């Protein structure tokens, strides 16, 4: 039998430090040399990761992207960083400062590696965000007609306001630093979610680490999605922290084993008991707060909902679904919140985005219910006529997503086998799948599902390795010597789990570096790409018709050029694609013809990133662009406006005088009315006020009454007047929304 | 410089929400206050764009006014109830609480204690 002798510790180290930190009163402290070794390894790993990046030659990249050109030392450094984090998990007690520093280093290393490699912000799409923000800064309004994304302008307005208010004229540093900063911000609400769970500190810290390392989908650039995701996490965190059912209700007497249930035997009852039998909740008892705090938090939830709805079109649906799922599985006491969220979402779509849906009802609602085609489009459908390396990366992405999902399910089952019912995690993992049928979303919904599934999936994967509900040595019979006892008892008992988790952590970090920057060959933006658009804006002062080369029919693939297009002066650009003549790169007649159609403002633009995109994704020949550029430069009808190795702009030597397209004036939000709309605008605020008042009243009635109070069933009857008031209002608002949809075309 | 100003812009509503929620635990209070601060700044900007009155100066005024209103609510609450209720005693029903952590009631005035008195 082992006897653990507690060493004397200084009091500030021995003191428990809040949620789960001081969970193991008997845990001996790590020896100081071990700690110092971990810190030294961390420093070595950081140096190994960052120092060799200076010599990286980005031009040597092929279809595998950044991982192909990263020095071996950098990859080694990443591995050292992963392993030192896992070594900190193997220590007897959590060293919070060390663990936080390691998670921070992971964020800056994984999500910020291109900061050291590329001169300006990567990813062309982020430059369109810059374009929207610049438009609002300049015109102080929006134009629904220019782009569908102006229908949910909340985020652009927010960023434009912040940048203008602090006097930041150049948006490029913001674009560059957005991914690490947003990932850091995501951890704040994630801490709140993690701390309510019945799990060991190892599981929680590993989940937080995974949440950073498994987030390879690249939706964290400066965009409405990234912002709305942060709001979603805050929303869920507040719900699970302060609006949870009290746990007494989940372990009612009827759920306990009675004589009747004990006599049930056989396979059926075993499965039944495993599914629905008495379980411990996977969450700690909810902290008790007063009605006042709950009311303030309710208003905050409502504000988060409104801000999220105005900022992004998909996220409020997931907020609604998450709240509804928590209510259905009895983990949320705000039963009216899903209805409020649904009303806000439906009203926003109906009243504010009318410019978008009025002209394309078929397209928007066509995606509804076409679940199978959506699934196909967002997984296999994304892999078409593409380069072998790019295709392998695409399969690797699917493999990682499937692995994460599979391990999460395994973790859920492992916890369930221990009699723990992780309902919050289950709801948060299943909710994103409800958006499959919602809309097509440009064939990207698979990525979004993974993204929204991630908080719960990381947690469940951490449970797979560290399933214990709390940190305590298992009680064993000292007379029985267990097999491999050295590794299952005593101080070493965590090592096997940490070792297996390290393998997974290494592979997910490696997978991250491979797939996150797998398209770096065409997702990087070079300074010349931006200058190409500056040159056009300086060269012609009216609406510019940008002609670009596409290997496939752009209408079929739904594409725009892989460039920082419209990164400013959004309203002055029109785009026309030319389908490449695959047989003869020197045949520029089609380009000249399209330039003539653009009138005096016609420019042909090509950039190296865009050319690489066509080569890797559409199977254009590798030397196509060079031969086309040579033919354009040699053509007597064409003059070169700007050309260097990375980008080139051409225009006609003698452009036609017609047609001159006027620069559109800002058209605002494009609100439109119908006969019933004014009534709807009156009913809607009243309905929301009544629903909120009803929730506030419910909170007050749910609060424990003093002795002699009515039983809760009777108190809940006092909600009825507000319910009766809300129902006709709800029906009226629904009727107005339907009427608007039918009348406005 | 811009970074400092941006931090200041968010710090004002965050501080207001911080003062509004004195009962929550520190970590929860801070994170909720950050959520409130971000939501406040974003909401002001969104209301401005929807009203067709987007302007940086007006936005700063709006954020300040909103923060003042929130902080005023907190101050009014404190004045109405001068001594904030004691923070809840540490929850004893937590999973990681062992028998050693629960204070044992001492039997000071036992029925037979007189036997041992001098």
From TrEMBL, chain B:
The entry's keywords: Membrane, Transmembrane, Transmembrane helix
Region (Disordered): 77-102
TM region(s), chain numbering: 26-45, 57-76
Protein name: Uncharacterized protein
Organism: Actinomadura parmotrematis
């Amino acid at each position: 039998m082992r006897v653990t002798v507690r060493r004397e510790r200084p009091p500030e180290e021995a003191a428990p430090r809040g949620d789960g930190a001081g969970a193991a009163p008997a845990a001996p402290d790590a020896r100081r040399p071990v700690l110092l070794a971990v810190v030294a390894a961390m420093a070595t790993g950081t140096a190994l990761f960052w120092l060799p990046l200076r010599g990286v030659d980005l031009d040597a990249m092929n279809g595998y992207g950044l991982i192909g050109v990263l020095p071996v030392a950098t990859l080694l450094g990443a591995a050292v960083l992963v392993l030192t984090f896992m070594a900190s998990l193997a220590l007897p007690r959590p060293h919070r400062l060390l663990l936080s520093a390691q998670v921070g280093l992971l964020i800056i290393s994984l999500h910020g590696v291109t900061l050291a490699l590329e001169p300006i912000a990567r990813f062309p799409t982020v430059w369109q965000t810059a374009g929207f923000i610049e438009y609002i800064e300049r015109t102080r309004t929006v134009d629904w007609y220019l782009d569908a994304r102006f229908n949910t302008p909340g985020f652009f307005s927010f960023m434009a306001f912040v940048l203008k208010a602090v006097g930041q004229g150049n948006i490029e540093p913001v674009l560059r630093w957005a991914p690490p900063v947003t990932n850091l911000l995501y951890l704040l609400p994630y801490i709140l979610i993690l701390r309510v769970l019945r799990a060991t500190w190892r599981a929680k810290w590993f989940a937080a680490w995974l949440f950073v390392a498994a987030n390879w989908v690249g939706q964290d650039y400066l965009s409405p999605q990234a912002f709305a995701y942060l709001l979603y996490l805050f929303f869920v965190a507040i719900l699970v922290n302060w609006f949870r059912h009290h746990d007494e209700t989940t372990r009612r007497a009827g759920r306990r084993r009675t004589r009747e249930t004990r006599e049930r035997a056989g396979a059926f009852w075993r499965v039944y008991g495993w599914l629905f039998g008495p379980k411990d909740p996977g969450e700690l008892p909810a902290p008790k707060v007063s009605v006042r705090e709950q009311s303030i938090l309710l208003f905050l939830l409502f504000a988060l909902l409104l801000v999220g709805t105005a900022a992004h079109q998909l996220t409020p649906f997931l907020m609604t679904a998450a709240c509804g799922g928590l209510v259905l599985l009895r983990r949320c006491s705000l039963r009216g919140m899903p209805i409020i969220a649904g009303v806000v979402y439906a009203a926003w779509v109906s009243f504010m985005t009318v410019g978008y849906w009025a002209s394309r009802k078929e397209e928007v609602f066509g995606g509804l219910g076409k679940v199978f085609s959506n699934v196909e489009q967002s997984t296999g459908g994304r892999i078409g006529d593409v380069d072998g390396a790019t295709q392998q990366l695409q399969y690797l992405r699917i493999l990682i997503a499937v692995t994460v999902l599979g391990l999460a399910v395994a973790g859920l089952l492992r916890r369930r086998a221990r009699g723990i019912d992780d309902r919050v995690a289950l709801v948060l993992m299943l909710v994103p799948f409800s958006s499959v049928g919602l809309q097509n979303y440009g064939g990207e919904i698979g990525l979004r599902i993974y993204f929204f599934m991630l908080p719960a999936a990381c947690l469940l994967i951490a449970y797979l390795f560290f399933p214990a509900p709390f940190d305590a040595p298992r009680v064993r019979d000292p007379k029985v010597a267990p097999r491999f006892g050295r590794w299952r008892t005593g101080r070493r008992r965590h090592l096997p789990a940490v070792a297996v988790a390290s393998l997974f952590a290494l592979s997910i970090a490696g997978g991250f570096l491979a797939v996150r920057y797998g398209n770096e060959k065409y997702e990087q933006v070079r300074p010349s790409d931006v200058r190409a658009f500056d040159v056009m804006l300086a060269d012609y002062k009216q609406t510019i018709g940008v002609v670009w080369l596409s290997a496939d029919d752009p209408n079929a693939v739904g594409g725009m050029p892989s460039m920082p297009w419209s990164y400013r002066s959004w309203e002055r650009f029109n785009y026309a694609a030319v389908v490449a003549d695959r047989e003869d790169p020197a045949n520029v007649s089609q380009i000249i013809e399209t330039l003539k159609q653009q009138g005096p403002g016609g420019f042909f633009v090509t950039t190296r990133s865009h050319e690489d995109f066509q080569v890797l994704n559409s199977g254009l020949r590798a030397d196509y662009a060079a031969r086309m550029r040579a033919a354009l430069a040699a053509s007597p009808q064409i003059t070169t406006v700007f050309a260097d190795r990375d980008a080139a702009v051409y225009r006609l030597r003698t452009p036609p005088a017609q047609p001159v397209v006027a620069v559109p004036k800002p058209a605002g939000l494009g609100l439109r009315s119908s006969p019933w709309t004014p009534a709807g605008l009156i009913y809607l605020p009243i309905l929301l006020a009544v629903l909120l008042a009803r929730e506030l009243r419910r909170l007050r009635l749910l609060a424990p009454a003093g002795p002699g109070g009515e039983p809760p069933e009777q108190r809940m009857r006092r909600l009825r007047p507000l319910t009766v008031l809300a129902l006709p209002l709800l029906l009226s608002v629904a009727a107005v929304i339907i009427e608007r949809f039918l009348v406005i075309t | 410089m811009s970074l400092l100003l941006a931090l200041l812009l968010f710090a004002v509503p965050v501080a207001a929400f911080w003062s509004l929620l004195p009962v929550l635990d520190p970590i929860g209070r801070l994170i909720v206050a950050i959520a409130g601060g971000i939501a406040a700044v974003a909401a002001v900007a969104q209301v401005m764009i929807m009203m067709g009155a987007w302007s940086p100066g007006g936005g700063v005024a709006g954020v300040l006014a909103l923060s003042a209103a929130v902080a005023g609510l907190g101050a009014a609450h404190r004045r109405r109830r001068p001594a904030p209720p004691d923070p809840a005693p540490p929850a004893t029903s937590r999973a990681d609480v062992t028998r050693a952590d629960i204070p044992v009631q001492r039997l000071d005035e036992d029925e037979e204690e007189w036997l041992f008195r001098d």
